[in-house]
Amino acid sequence: MSIDDTPDNRRSKPTGTLESDATGILPSFISLGGGLLVARAIAFLGTAFLTRKLGPYGFGVIGLALAISGYFSSTVQASVGPVGSREVARHPERAVSMAGGVIVVRLALALVALALVAVIALVIEKPIEVKHVVFLTSLTMLAQALITAWVYKGLGRNRMVGLSLILTQIVYVITLFAVVREPSDVIWVPIAMVLGELAAAVLLGIPLFRNADSKADIHEGLRILRSSKYLVSSRMLTQVTRTADIVLLGLMVGESSVGLYTAGYRLCLLVLGVGQSLHTAYLPKLARAAQKGAQTADRIGRRAFESAVVVVLPLVAGGLLYSQSLLGLLFGSEFEAGATAFKLLLIGIGLQYVHGLAHNVLLVFDRTRADMRLRAIATIINVTLNLLWIPRWGIVGAAAATLVSHIVITLLSLWVCRRLGVRLVSSSWWKAAVSTAIMLAWLLTAAVQWPLALQILTGGLVYAASLSVLRGIPVDLRP
């Protein structure tokens, strides 16, 4: 089966040439967002399984390993991914040759990063099992270098991306269930991660390269890499902002605190993933709009903001309301101690919906250097506050430091976008706010004695009904 859907399409297009389809925002968002939600739901089974088998300490070891290797794996992924998606959106006929060149470049970067992580694993003052887990977790970089999801995103073909996300988690969770039985089995967790990533690489790679006559264009891969230099720096800074709290907690407090902290962060990543799906759905359209000028991009940007607000407000509000219950239900009662930190992290994730849109604007207008500077400011604030607040307040101090950095970068990003002529903020946000307030009123009164699942279900229905009555459903999210 090739990327194109029908035999007629395969006959009418040159071999190895892919064209961006004309899907709208809603189908693209549903394809990617739905796949991501299903994947994260499956991953939650694995997370709940690990928290019970490994406990806070063992789960903290995994969190620390992901944080350390994440500094490098995020660089490998960012080295060509977002810019590559932009270039594919602009030149879909060169997608296959771009993909081959990019894979070669990313593999080379992954090997260098792998060597650096090996050195770090040797020198950190941690037990030997922690060193092993850190190194094995970094092997995911090699598998991630082979994943071509960025090509499909640039083409607006997000169904395959969604399926790859689901397959990754299925392979990962099945492997966990098969081999993890007690805390000493923590060493198998990164191996399960690698197998999941490899499965996704195969799923995406076969239809992309199966009938392609184009050769890998290494020069194209290097060109995209050079174009990504500021974006790579931005991603590294973002990774520092996201994981400095975890690393410093591990070094200054201990792995058990990391376990409590990262359990809540896993829930936040579910909310963040929905936002990332929305940003990805808008990226091809925003890239083409930017070529027509700031006025066109401003219109698309404000539509993207409207959609983001409609999606994020009920998720954040519901998470704040049920924070302790969710942690206890999903991970066990001993993880409820992380509820306050989880609430602060969740608010920060909501802000990431906004500056994620701003990041896309800076990307399509080739303002990646400005984006890097903004993230540098946020990173300095984040690390400084973590160093000051973690010794005093532990995981709550870490979450507060992260929230402050998100506030700063959100405000600065909106200001820079406005200078480019893209305002982003739309006046229709009040409709989502009123609908969210009605949803909360329902949950705190009529539905308060109902089972948690039923409360969440009816709360979502009340929110959707209120938003519909207020005519607040954005045009891009209407069927």
What descriptors fit this protein?
479 residues; mainly alpha; disordered N terminus
SS elements, strand count: 0
Q: Largest sheet, if any?
A: none
Oligomerization: single chain
Indicate the mean pLDDT.
Answer: 82
CA-to-CA gap between the ends? 29 Å
Structural class: mainly alpha
Shape: globular
Helix count equals: 19
Percent strand: under 5%
Q: H/E series, N to C? A: HHHHHHHHHHHHHHHHHHH
Helix content: over 70%
Rounded radius of gyration (Å):
22 Å
Outline the low-pLDDT stretches: 1-23
Record the SSE blueprint.
Elements: H1 7-12, H2 25-78, H3 81-90, H4 95-123, H5 128-138, H6 140-146, H7 149-155, H8 158-179, H9 188-209, H10 218-227, H11 229-252, H12 255-292, H13 294-321, H14 323-331, H15 339-364, H16 368-393, H17 395-420, H18 429-444, H19 452-469
Helix pairs in contact: 2-4, 2-5, 2-6, 2-8, 2-11, 2-12, 3-7, 3-12, 4-5, 4-6, 4-10, 5-9, 6-9, 7-8, 8-9, 11-12, 11-16, 11-17, 12-13, 12-15, 13-15, 13-18, 15-17, 16-17, 18-19
Task: Give your account of this protein's structure.
This protein has helices at 7-12, 25-78, 81-90, 95-123, 128-138, 140-146, 149-155, 158-179, 188-209, 218-227, 229-252, 255-292, 294-321, 323-331, 339-364, 368-393, 395-420, 429-444, 452-469. The chain is mostly helical and 479 residues long. The longest helix is centred in the N-terminal third of the chain and has 54 residues, at 25-78. It starts with 6 loop residues before the first helix and ends in a 10-residue tail after the last helix.
